[in-house]
Design a protein that fits this description.
Number of helices: 3
Number of strands: 0
Helix content: over 70%
Shape: elongated
Order of helices and strands: HHH
Distance between the termini: 16 Å
Largest sheet: none
Radius of gyration: 15 Å
Amino acid sequence: MNKKMAIHHTINIILMITLIIFNYTNIGGFTTSLILAVFFMANAILLIRASTKKVKKDGVTIDDSNKK
């Protein structure tokens, strides 16, 4: 995993934890939960784009990498 994907994974984990905490405690209400969910989805889309670019550049998928 390269540095860009590690950053995206870390951000996604932090966003998911805060989203769960806000939903569980009902601190921020609906607006905060909605904003965090949108940020999480946007970051997930960027993660997929970065992964796709890496596969196109290297030509190696996860299954190919596991076979080695």
